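Data availability (excerpt). The following record was deposited with the supplementary files.
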Amino acid sequence: MFSKILIANRGEIACRIINTARRMGIATVAVYSDADRRALHVRMADEAVHIGPAAAIESYLVADKIIEACRRTGAQAVHPGYGFLSERSSFAQALAAAGIVFIGPNGKAIDVMGDKIASKKFANMAKVSTIPGYLGVIENAEQATEVARDIGLPVMIKASAGGGGKGMRIARSIGEVAEGFARARSEAAASFGDDRVFIEKFIENPRHIEIQVLGDKHGHVIYLAERECSIQRRNQKVLEEAPSSLLDEDTRRRMGEQAVALARAVDYDSAGTVEFVCGQDKSFYFLEMNTRLQVEHPVTELITGVDLVEQMIRVAAGEPLALRQEDVRIKGWAVESRVYAEDPANNFMPAAGRLRTYRPPAEESRPDGITVRNDTGVYEGGEIALHYDPMIAKLITHAPTREQAIEAQCEALDAFAIEGIAHNLSFLSALMHHPRWRSGKLSTGFIAEEYPGGYIAAEPAGDRARRMAMVAGVMDACLHPVPQSEGTYREAVVRLGAQDYPLSIRGRAGLWRVRIPGDAAEHIVQSDWRTDQPVWRGLVDGETAVVGVDIGQEPFVLSHAGTLARAMVLGPKESELLALMPEVQAELDKKSLVCPMPAMVVSLAVKVGDQVAAGSPLCVLEAMKMEVSLEAEEDAVITRIEVKPGDKLAGGDIIMDFA
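Predicted structure:
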């Protein structure tokens, strides 16, 4: 077994690997760029080596720097995590030449399975069910259009290299093929240095289900059940769960056996994932194989009890798998939410900046079978850098049943406090409470179908709103205590969003009695909340309530169960006077296109003097490894353009003006 390994990655996955290595008694070496000098993975590792500037292409993607860091520290093996160098056979070969072990699969498996075109040809030969498509490289937009006509619409245009939703476009009409080809090719080149794309039939209303495989260097391969990753946005996974609510035992076995057959065909010898696109009728087709650890691996670990990172390390050290297929059992259900630095209200634009508050829910394994796990690479006061993926954390809950795992996830999301940077917690919570998600009627189009106009946090209503109003009233009593005689009530009106809730409150810190006009009984609110805490946790009429609170604003903002509302607590007279005040409508300035986030200009689709129609593309920006096309909101004429391709912009910078 190794005595020291180096992690050629950053963020939450580097921290995740360090935790397992520490438990195994293995020393760890972190590498870091200028932007990550104070990162959590650097703090956690036993040693850390600086490898260059913030740009990944000058640091984390430079194999020679990783090898030199191994030489300097005496690291015997390298775990690549996911992304960066994890699926480059040239990196594995360079390590081997330097006498360093690659904690991952052999180069043949990486080469064959890492190329989507080659992998589909190989899967066909291995008799794995595949999607109809054109497996050659598409040379130009004209050929793409011809191939799409032959296959039949809709089609998926996909990058041959890479993954993570980059370089993928769906074309539902012939007119969309050329544009989709151009965008997929450009994004693929920027993300992977490889602009090859191919085209395949797009399965309508599909589900995305993947099989976790594990192989050793002695020819032994097993599968560890499945994960469902159907809840996606822009082909990027948002929620994952294990197992899938779609599969039965027979379908699971057949998918698992095909995945194992494919892995054996390439002598697979590490943890890997065989991804399938599935029809609602449980039909399934090979999509791709990821020859690395997946972002969503924790849900598999929780339902099987297998530490995949540990198994990867042991296999790389030459140990045979201790597990046999018959030893694998599914225990309970696990759900994972990806917490991102992004603004759901602004078309999910990525964000960067400092985490003024970062307080995740406590990790725990409770007597009732509930487990809460938070894989993260950040800390309060740290920064989310513009140069890398905007992931903040992965929040995972495990329970005996799917319903219990979802309820635990809901409570954990409510208890997650982030301030200082845009984040998607309210969106994740809304998804968790969505009746379609809870019913298990999923597809990869879920988010586009349920939020066609984008996501706007809903205001609370009904009993949920009444509970939040009572919590707001009690919070205000804690924030602004006033002397009260025994038995007297404090009168208040809570304006929660657009609704007013008159309340009568009496009591003290810890125990409050609240009256609401029209309610027969008095309500009891209990909590030991302090005014410096970003999460209110307590009991309302004996039921647990967890409410996020940002009291740094006036009125303060409450979040609970996927809803968001501003809460203003007024005296009765103040409420009367406020009702008489006219609403001031802010006049929106639509004369300029403003950069919605820190980004780089990839291309401009217009020039000065062009007349554009609403919905016309104006420019393409790149931020945090993702290309975003900005479109005209209304008919206009371009009067001035302030930027050129290659320019780096801050959020709020003017891109162009209109008339």
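Summary of structural features: The two ends are 68 Å apart (CA to CA).
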